[in-house]
Amino acid sequence: MEEQNLTGGSEFHLMRLSKDPDLQPILFGLFLSMYLVTVLGNLLIMLAVSSDSHLHTPMYFFLSNLSLADIGFISTTVPKMIVNIQTHSRIISYVGCLTQMSLFAIFGCMDDMLLTVMAYDQYVAICHPLHYSAIMNSHLCIFSVCLSLLFSLLESQLHILIVLYFTYFRDMEITNFFCEPSQVLELTCMDTFTKNMFVYTLGAIYGFFPLTGIFFSYYKIVSSILRIPSTGGKYKAFSTCGSHLSVVCLFYGIAIGVYFTSAVSNSPGKITVFSVMYTVVIAMLNPFIYSLRNRDIKIALKKLQSRVI
Q1: Angle at 235 between CA 231 and CA 239, to 5 degrees
Q2: Cα gap 79→73, rounded to integer Å
Q3: Percent of the chain at pLDDT above 90?
């Protein structure tokens, strides 16, 4: 069929997770539960860190900001999806789609940037322990978070400006349950070369460079740990960065899976499964990873529980 240019219009049509009406109540309950667990878990991490003076360190400062970004990340997509399931609607307004796309880019990029900053924090803590306090001072921590936010806002605005510039769309059907930036970009009447250049440039800046920084940090960390003579010292050093490494593997593993699935497969079902894992599962698992693998967080949560009781 010949492609037809459609105007920006007033609304887009999102894809349903399932067309089976009997599954709708189950999906509603499942995603509502996952959303509440995610928000509660990340709020508990933030409360535990803020209430315990022993956790007022750079690592936990970044962790609190990561939890805040995770709450924003999942709140960008899941509440709208839950409402759509309940109302049996697939419609999202043009302004609503741009807003969702913008917030998704901001919080997704914040996760990306903060994980990179946390990798550097782990590198300094293990490779330069004597200079840790001097290097990771409060000014650098605040500057790092502000810089991460600035980069996130920049990426978001680039996506929005491109979509606003091309006011005509080839289609109004988005093959996902939310306005994923790359899929909205795919619907614009932009030539393939320009589109690929834009995607690859952003991918290099916000994907390749942060991932390279994380790999370099952990290369240095592993090299330093292997030089520790005692087995106990090696175990203690590895356990320090175990939670962060688990989250990094989860975040980038699923993100790469989403990218290759979108590029290789034309199956909306597979893309949706990876998108659910990327937008919902990662944010939900982060508090469990940090609370189960981190002794300090466990102690802070117990103290918080005893104060409430």
Answers
A1: 175
A2: 11
A3: 35
